[in-house]
Amino acid sequence: MAVRRPITILIVNPNSSVSMTEGLEPILADLIHPQLELRYLTGPKASPPSVNDFTTSVLSAAHTLPSVLAILNSEGAEVPDAVLVTCFSDHPLVGMLREHTDKPVLGIFEASVMHALALGQPFGIVTTGKYWEGALTEGVKRIFGSGDLGGAFVGVESTGMTALELHDKPPDLVAAGISAAASRIVARSARTIIMGCAGMSGMEEAVREGCGGERVRIVDAVRSGVTMLECLVRAQTL
């Protein structure tokens, strides 16, 4: 029987902050096995250092698209089997890439909401800046066709920090902000919490600290995206 080559997933950070990309590697290291490889791409220097609103979403997508297409259109075994966009939003790069490739493309926002729905409990999102409370709620409605998903989605609470500040601010202040937002979303009846920023990966303890003893499941959006894409590729190739 022929040995199947490993599945390769391209992890795309569409902002220009290399530190954010590098921060993902240890978080995802335990998902790698002989039949799964992860490659990483950071947006070019012209891309915003952090995606904080609609304008920076569009700019990051426009600047990063050519770099991803260059990889997808290359020859040989270096071409990835799937692409994960690691900005937690209804990010335009996801749709743009789907126009140019038939390979599976997911954003971590979309992947984590599907993950949370499958767990069967009311869920909410803890995210970064205030802007995202409305934007992510609208994103759920656009992608999934419902504002509350039949009562499953209880809403979004923000920390007041940008994605970049999650890495740059003192860890105790970051943890306090995440814990406070988690406490507010639990008070709204969430029993599954999505960590709504790639920069939050690995910060489960801060979320749990804010849950006040409630039994809550925590979804890491980046890990959801990787595992979902691996399954999608295997389902296509079996």
Automatic annotation (TrEMBL):
InterPro entries, alphabetized: Asp/Glu/hydantoin_racemase, Hydantoin_racemase-like, Iso_Racemase_Enz_sf
GO molecular function: amino-acid racemase activity
Family: Belongs to the HyuE racemase family.
Protein name stated in the entry: Asp/Glu/hydantoin racemase
Organism, scientific name: Ganoderma sinense ZZ0214-1
